[in-house]
Amino acid sequence: MPHTAAPPALSSPVPRVADRDRRRTSASVVLRSVLEHGPVARSTIARLTGLSPASVTDYCARFTARGLIREAAAPRQSGGVGRPHVPVDLDDSRFVVGGVHVAVPHTTVALLDLRGRVVAERELKHSGATDPYGPYGVLARAADGLAALLDEAPGSRPLGVGFAAGGWVDRDSGTVVEHPLLGWREVPVREVLGAHTGLPVHVDGHARALVNAERLFGRARGSASVLHLFVGNVVDAAFATHDEVHHGPRSQAGAIAHLPVPGGTETCDCGRVGCLQVELSERTLCRRAREAGVVDGTNPTHVVRAAAGGDPVAARLLTERARMTGRAVGLLLDVLNPETVVVTEIGVLSREDCLGALRKAVGTPRAAAVGPTTFADSVLAVAGGSVALDVLYRDPLGASPEAI
Q1: Do residues 163 and 196 lie in contact, with contact meaning Cβ atoms separated by under 8 Å?
Q2: Which residue from 43, 198, 240, 312 lies 20 to 30 Å from 205 (Cα-Cα)?
């Protein structure tokens, strides 16, 4: 009688991988619940997450042992019978993450606590594409800046470093693939910063980093979908649904520099007229302000200061830029239809008339969904640090101190 071959057995790594992913997800939702609702009882976390009380207790014990959470000082009575419910909360007293954001005129280095709050911050000037030490010198000085901040906070223990920048940044390889305004190409940021700091380094584009900051700590928490538009010298965007930021192949998603803007007049390096980045760039804003006699430099905050001092030309330049930003938001809304839109743009962050111009250009009824970033006073510091914090909250047992 012929033998029938037995069906192939499932290899053992498959369930182990699935179990590991499930544990990582469960740990993430528990720590996120503590972040969002703490001080909170373990029984409440179980109800919010759908996990069993035993699982929640186990994860909370692990987080406590690692120093990520702590029991609140005063237990809450549960109703007069049984043991009181002892709430847990984030322990934001000991751990920090480093943040590095490289902009065109300067680098921002910072320390952030587990709630995404900036503990310390410093700005380091560099010369961009003409910096004599190149990208490696810029990164070395950033590492030195972080070390100086840590020296000034001796009780803080760093969990890792987050790096953010504009341009094309590949999260998986930890590389700035291309940043034309800085003159950077294929810069291995993770490798370089890791060698200088001795810490885990996580790398992402600043628009995506700020989406993660908004969903963890800001106005987009709980939103099913979020669009972030960053308007500085670099103009780019990021989009997230259900806590997942879309990266695309080699993290190229969000490259909108050459999106055509209706009514644009500036000639782009690509040869076309009216590309989004050249129209809205802070360089363009400052050049127009110089031509109008408003300022004599290249710092966009000086344009905002002039407008605050009553200069009508400065105010007009800022509101017109906000209006064009609103047109760009409207185009992205048509394509992506997000629940929440966050805009980082200096006029919108500083002036109600700019926010009004932005929303008017977006149009009703969608304008109500559009607002400025939560982190107006520390947006670049938060962009860098939130790259590392996103990793922590996605995999708290893998990214917490025992793993370092």
Answers
A1: no
A2: 198
